[in-house]
């Protein structure tokens, strides 16, 4: 099928090819890269190009004009500028925080608004500090560097849709629901720990004034949702979208009906059920050979020898650490690289080796 835009108002796209292993939640994402224009370029070293691989999108510097509590543990940010690039449902931004940390947040405002972007962030108590910085240090009046928008989770044309969102996973789904044609066949399952912790809950419920399309499940009231029943009776070719914790996405993949296409948006890099093993990495140009332990990353091992190696998000989203691979079989765990890029390069912050040895052009 063609990947060209479909000519009707919702701007849905023809399906992007996905690789779905039976019973597993493996999706090879497609990145949509655009050069941002019309806003002030960003500052600092966060935008430096990688030593090999793609150059980064030129960053923008936007002003935080709203920092509001949206739900328990969730804040909304509005970032304003002028002439901002338009985006499509499913897109996200890379936010460069004042500390230099880079975090990705789904856009949840109006795609046609070229004066502001809206994102929401949940506080991760045991995280690496990015969400806490957004909650406690970013405030109205803060200037933030922004890269994007990028879209690895595009809304595609389909005969019917089933959306499954867990907690903050509603953020990329909400613009999709707004964009669907009035006669579209869709259903939504929105779950969370408590109703008070579920952002945009009131707006979601208003999208289904007659009832029957939206199912809200608060775990403290009703337990976990019945995914099998929710996904039953979908027509051939239906698109199933899921964004939420890894366990939720694995469960959706397990209950996916035959003939339906699964689209996932992850909060963290993929992991393997069998665990990771140790392997060797040769840095050809540097003449060094490293050992990557099972509990560490290629990036960490490389930076121990080459401390100036560029990196940013450490989650496989931004592409800063992309490096060319000369030899070896790559275990890709990012959601960014295209199929052609995967042939001879990898994101060393998350991807690993399928065998015992890789050779990098470093």
Instruction: Tell me the structural class.
Output: alpha/beta
**What is the tally of helical segments?**
8
- Rg, please? 20 Å
CATH architecture of the largest domain, please?
Answer: Beta Barrel
Number of domains: 3
Q: What is the CATH superfamily label of the largest domain?
A: Translation factors
Q: How many strands, what sense, and barrel or not for the largest sheet?
A: 6 strands, antiparallel
Strand order of the largest sheet: 4-3-6-1-2-5
CATH topology of the largest domain: Elongation Factor Tu (Ef-tu), domain 3
Describe the structure.
- With 362 residues, this protein is an alpha/beta fold.
- It folds into three domains: 45-149, Translation factors (Elongation Factor Tu (Ef-tu), domain 3, Beta Barrel); 161-265, Nucleotide-binding domain of ferredoxin-NADP reductase (FNR) module (Rossmann fold), CATH 3.40.50; 279-360, Beta-grasp domain (Ubiquitin-like (UB roll), Roll), CATH 3.10.20.
- The protein contains eight helices and 18 strands.
- It has helices spanning 130-136, 170-179, 201-206, 219-222, 227-231, 246-254, 298-305, 339-342; strands spanning 60-71, 74-80, 92-96, 102-106, 116-122, 143-150, 161-166, 186-192, 214-218, 239-243, 261-265, 279-283, 288-292, 322-327, 330-331, 345-347, 352-353, 357-360.
- The strands form four sheets. It has a six-stranded antiparallel β-sheet with strand order 4-3-6-1-2-5, with helices on one face. A five-stranded parallel β-sheet has the order 9-8-7-10-11, with helices on both faces. The chain has a five-stranded mixed β-sheet with strand order 13-12-18-14-16, with helices on one face.
- α3 links the parallel β8 and β9 (214-218).
- The chain is globular.
- The two termini are 39 Å apart.
- The relative contact order is 0.15.
């Amino acid at each position: 099928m063609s990947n060209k835009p479909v000519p009707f108002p919702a701007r849905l796209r023809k399906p992007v090819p996905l690789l779905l292993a039976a019973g597993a939640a493996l999706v090879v994402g497609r990145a949509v890269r655009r050069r941002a224009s019309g806003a002030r370029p960003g500052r600092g070293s966060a935008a430096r190009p990688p030593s090999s691989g793609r150059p980064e999108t030129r960053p923008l510097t936007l002003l935080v004009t709203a920092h509001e509590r949206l739900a328990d543990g969730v804040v909304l940010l509005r970032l304003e500028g002028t002439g901002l690039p338009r985006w499509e449902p499913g897109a996200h931004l890379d936010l460069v925080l004042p500390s230099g940390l880079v975090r990705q947040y789904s856009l949840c405002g109006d795609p046609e608004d070229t004066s502001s972007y809206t994102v929401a962030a949940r506080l991760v108590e045991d995280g690496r500090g990015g969400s806490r910085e957004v909650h406690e240090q970013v405030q109205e009046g803060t200037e933030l560097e922004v890269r994007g928008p990028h879209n690895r989770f595009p809304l595609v044309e389909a005969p019917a849709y089933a959306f499954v969102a867990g907690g903050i996973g509603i953020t990329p789904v909400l613009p999709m629901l707004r964009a669907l044609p009035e006669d579209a066949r869709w259903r939504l399952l929105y779950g969370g720990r408590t109703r008070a912790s579920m952002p945009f809950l009131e707006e979601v419920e208003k999208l289904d004034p007659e009832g029957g399309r939206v199912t809200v499940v608060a775990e403290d009231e009703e337990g976990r949702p019945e995914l099998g029943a929710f996904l039953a009776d979908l027509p051939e070719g239906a698109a199933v979208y899921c964004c939420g914790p890894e366990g939720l996405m694995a469960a959706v993949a397990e209950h996916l009906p035959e003939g339906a296409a699964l689209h996932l948006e992850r909060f963290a890099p993929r992991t393997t059920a069998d665990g990771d093993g140790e392997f060797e990495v040769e840095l050809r140009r540097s003449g060094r050979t490293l050992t990557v332990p099972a509990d560490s990353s290629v990036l960490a091992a490389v930076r121990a020898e080459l401390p100036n190696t560029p990196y940013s998000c450490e989650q496989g989203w931004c592409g800063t650490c992309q490096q060319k691979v000369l030899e070896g079989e790559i275990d890709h765990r990012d959601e960014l690289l295209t199929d052609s890029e995967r042939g001879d390069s990898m994101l060393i912050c998350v991807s690993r080796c399928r065998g015992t040895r890789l050779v990098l052009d470093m």
